[in-house]
């Protein structure tokens, strides 16, 4: 008979033990044992699914907050660029032109990073959707069998 126990690390340890056949014993028949193991596996699957679901939701929330921050930063940089352009029109001094070029370079880099972050977010959203569909199909398959 297989006996399943948890060791000190929480891992399942399977050992084989000898059993004495006793006609008066109240042990579970093989079908009941299999159902109990399946129930245990289902519980483990649900726990893993729940944990992964909460981690993914937390990640999605943080990614969404990052996107919002990037959009706000992009808007602020755009506004400041317009103000700088206005200043340049009013006073085109070489000193201002030098700093304007630096600020314009920073603006381009931030815009590029913002585009990259949006692309990454779209990819993560696609992966999340694919995982969600896979989990739903897997649940349907286990429920039907």
TrEMBL record:
GO terms for molecular function: SNARE binding. It holds the Pfam family Snapin_Pallidin. Residues 22-34 have a biased composition (Low complexity). One of its GO terms (biological process) is endosome to lysosome transport. InterPro entries: Snapin, Snapin/Pallidin/Snn1. GO terms for cellular component: BLOC-1 complex; BORC complex. Keywords: Coiled coil. Residues 1-44 are annotated as: Disordered. Belongs to the SNAPIN family. This is Biogenesis of lysosome-related organelles complex 1 subunit 7. It comes from Dipteronia sinensis. The lineage of its organism: Eukaryota, Viridiplantae, Streptophyta, Embryophyta, Tracheophyta.
